[in-house]
Amino acid sequence: MEKLIGILRASGADGWEIRDTQTKGWEFYFIKHQLDQHRVKEVRHVNLTVYKKSEDGKYIGFCDGEVYPDDDEKTIEKQVSSLIYSASLMKNPVYALNQPKAAQSIDTKPYTVREISRDFLNLMNAVKETEYKYINSYEIFVNEQTFRLITSEGIDVKETSPVSMMEVVVNAKDEKHEIELYRMYRSGTCDPSRIREDLEKTMRYGHDRLKAKPTMHLNSAPVVFSDSNALKIADFFLDRTNAAYIYRGMSSWKKGEPYAEELRGDRVSLRALRYLDNSYCNRIYDREGAPVRDLSLIDQGIVKAYHGSRMFSQYIGNDDSFIVSNFELSGGTASEEEIRSGSYLEAVEFSDFQVDSLTGDIFGEIRLAYWHDGNTVTPISGGSVSGNMNELMKTMRMSSEMKQLSAARIPAAIRLEHVTIAGEGE
To answer: Beta 354-355 vs 361-372: how paired, if at all?
Structure first.
């Protein structure tokens, strides 16, 4: 590291950042509940960003690269020189890099990779299965990750945190057909109750998919979103307050003003969170060295602040910004039971549900949904849902009950009115 810093200081770069990420972890690969293979890993990645200004000092460019443990000094010098040249070709308006700032540490619960691994293994053994609904395979990745940032401006910070992930394939079958559903869970440590509940729900979805009827032609109807689909709706609000979207004209939301006129539904509140229990994104500093903190981005429908990278934040005059890691979307005024009342479509599985943060368009091909007519519940499949968030958010309703998904806390259910539904059946 000392040699690398010396090379960068002598390189002629106008600024630089070193991101040194060391990961120690355990990995497990199961077929059904039979261990197929496992391994212990220790991996290190050292990534560089170099900055170069134009001769007149009006512009600055940057370029990223990675150096490897077995690279000799001449190889690194050659690579740094190449990065500087590439950076010199980029013409961004000049901006200043982050300066060192003190940040409050995070009080975290003690953990070990062994304990987290044990919790995941015990969790999977406790999942309730049947002959027709069962676990096909799963992979567990439990890591202790140490991240160090060193910059030309004098920042030198290091923090260590748990980062875990599990991928699961669930099968459901009947006498004629068999289908698979995929789930991925990301967290700091293990949250057994939440994951087990979701896996058992997923197996039920698979069983219902086998007997689903074709989606009827509904033209438009209320649609209730939950879990990962609701998270994509929440991401729309986070993106629209990002400095990059503001600077590029991709978002017209302005501080001190409502994000939409004629709001008749729930008014969103959005907060950046420095710490979220069991998140894999709890950070003291962001990847550019800015201290992460709690920050109100939207308060009851009124835009309060922007977030984002140093470059775009400075371009819009927001010097005291940072890159959000955890966030919370709230503002629901009704219970989940009230959100799920009357006639509505409950969409749970899509081929790929999308919310375009630029245009506001939403779209998803239905793999499984439930039509609630007030008396009966019918599993359906096929067709699609579509609409535009710029209109749908005006009457959007959210449950007061909250749910955590990875690095976000969001309403357990989000209801959008007048969503276009294209069906396949009568």
So the answer is: antiparallel
> Structurally, how many domains does the chain consist of?
2
Going by the DSSP 8-state scheme, the letter that residue 216 receives in this structure is B
Are 221 and 184 members of one domain? no
Domain identity same for 280 and 392: yes
Other residues' Cβ atoms within 10 Å of the Cβ of residue 89: 9
CB 286 within 8 A of CB 149: no
Q: What is the pLDDT of residues 97-135, one digit of tens each?
A: 999 999 888 777 889 999 999 999 999 999 999 999 999
Could you tell me if 325 and 283 are in contact, meaning their C-beta atoms sit under 8 angstroms apart? yes
* Domain termination site, one of 209, 230, 250: 209
Whether 39 and 146 map to the same domain: the answer is: yes
**Is residue 250 domain-shared with residue 139, that is, in the same domain?**
no
Angstrom distance (rounded) from CA 252 to CA 417: 23
pTM greater than 0.70:
yes
Look up the domain containing 345 and give its range.
213-422
CB 353 within 8 A of CB 364: yes
CATH code, domain with 136: 3.30.2290.10
Q: pLDDT for 44-100, tens place per residue?
A: 999 999 999 999 999 999 999 999 988 999 999 999 999 999 999 999 999 999 999
Assigned token pair, 170: 């669930």
Question: Is residue 259 located within the same domain as residue 195?
Answer: no
Sequence-separated (6 or more) residues with CB below 8 Å from residue 162: 111, 113, 116, 142, 143, 144, 145, 188, 189, 280
Give the phi and the psi of residue 72 in degrees, each rounded to 5. -85, 175
Other Cβ atoms within 10 Å of 356 Cβ, number: 13
Q: How many helices (H) and strands (E) does the chain have?
A: 9, 22
